[in-house]
Amino acid sequence: MEGFLRNSPQQGLPGFGSCQVAACYRLRGSERTAYCEVHQGRLNRERRSGTFDGDEERWRLTSSSVPVNREVSLRGLPDRLVAEFLYCLQVRTAREAKTKDHRMRHISDQLRLLQVPSLETLGKDDLIRAGMVDNLRMIIRGAQTALRRLGATAETERLKDVWDLFVFGHQGTLTFSRIHQRALREAVKVWAYDELPRRRGRSVAGSMQNMIRGMEQLSDSLRLQRDDEGHEIRRLSRMDMVSFCNRVAFLSETGVFGAHHRVNVIRYVRRIVNRIRVLGLTGPGQVLEGLPAGFSLSMEDIPDEPEDTEAGRDLPDEVMRELCDNFDLLEKMSNREYRVAAELLVDTGRRPDEISTLAVECLGKDPDGTLVLIYDNSKNYRLGRRLPIAKATAAVIMEQQERVRERFPDTPADRLKLLPSPVANPAGTKPIGSIGDAHQAWVNALPDIMIPVVIEVDGQLVTKLLPFDKSKIFPYAYRHSFAQRHADANIDPDVLMDLTDHRELSTTQGYYNPRELHQAGEKPQVAWSRREAERVRRVYGLAS
User: pLDDT tens across 519-533, in order?
Assistant: First the structure.
């Protein structure tokens, strides 16, 4: 063939030119048509079926390409959109996310149909109008996030009313737009910018947004109760804070939010306002210049904690038994990693983030031969903590270690996670996210868990079996249960403080508050199964 082409006097005939469909790179089928054979046939079918609207110029711009193998055609898209498309594909690949070619082809075709100049101009209504399913919308939203973060820094982000905490090294967002007074809003931004470097863990966004919501309540109070709606900073006074406290008390009493939220709102406002003054934001030339000293809160303004602060935090024995006996269902409904995470939460009393981020090499031994769990307390930035664990708990960890090493044999052990994420994680180096949703679905799937409750009937106390409120069963409740059972077993507070890795003894002492059951001098008598008895012994450090 090579020799024939090189020596033959015959010359190839010229083509008829390119297909006029913007997305197509094929040649026209004949000199009588402007399109390749495939697109000419497609146009003819649309005309016969009545789906062609008569605008052939728009049809050329929006018609999809002819799919070949696994190619994705970006022809016919604006240069900027093509660049954004390729950049976002690079970002997804860098995150080790799989990108199916048919999904990208469909997105390309829909963008061509919408005739948008940039991904940044796409709105939610545009995606719905284009008929994109959830998976495709998720890719588009991820692309828009990547473009928003391109070139962003903490210095540029702090000027916005909604912060993407990615540029600060955290997850999630912070919203300030619900603080109505501009000066107060800008001051809270300065406070947040100063506070973020001291925050660690995966719940930074949630905890800080809760504090900002306290300032939102203060802003609402000023807007509703002052003629100037709180915009004239120099006119604010102690009475405005009193009005705020009264309004929060009213909202709590009318059920808008609970008593605990009332305490936290006032505590957060006091903390932020005091910090704003320390940062010098009330001085000359600052955003809150001239803010009166009386516009503040003292410790006496914070209401007492409700007496039942500890009520409902730990789970009753009957509930723990039912949950432990149904871990197989949790694994069936989710995966093995979530089941192991739940077992370790119950056995060790660690925080959910501390369990989900465990390294595969998290099992060690103390000099006396005691098996220990090695974990990071990211909340307080105390790394390499060591918790004595039972042999049964260590066996769960060792079994999971073997599974992970078999799944990812080429990844160095020091990079592997004990509970690797099942998504975008080909090397096993990313931990699972929150197990909250899967855990809640599992709890909801369980039958009602009946517990004995003493109620008054005709003036006499009667014990009845009533269903336990499933909303109180969440991953962090296992930590409260761990601490409460040790306290009930008369473990020394100093020892329990070490086991729970609390920074303050006062936090640990909260589990030693007298409760009604203790005052009656009674202990529940529960018939444990052999499996459950072994689990309770190792969870609460009791002798066999």
Answer: 333 333 333 344 444
Q: Output the pTM of the full model.
A: 0.71
When pLDDT is averaged across residues 133-141 and rounded to a whole number, the result is 85
Structure confidence at residue 48 as a pLDDT band (50, 70, 90): very high
pLDDT digits (tens, 9 = 90+) for 465-475: 889 999 999 99
Q: Can you tell me the distance from the alpha carbon of 482 to that of 327, in angstroms, rounded to the nearest whole number?
A: 18
Phi, psi of 472 (to 5 degrees): -90, 0
- Which helix H or strand E contains 348, and what residues bound it? helix 336-348
For residues 130 and 113, is the Cβ–Cβ distance under 8 A?
Answer: yes
Phi–psi pair at 424, nearest 5 degrees: 50, 55
Asked if 474 contacts 340 with a C-beta cutoff of 8 angstroms, the reply is no
Q: How would you label 150-188 residue by residue, b for 16+ Cβ within 10 Å and e otherwise?
A: eeeeeeebbeeeebbbebbebeeebebeebbbebbbbbb
Rounded to whole angstroms, the Cα distance separating 353 from 249 reads 34
Number of residues written out for the chain: 544
Q: Which residues pair with 175 in a beta bridge?
A: 162
Residue-wise DSSP of 434-481:
--HHHHHHHHHHSPP-EEEEEEEETTEEEEEEEE--GGG--TTHHHHH
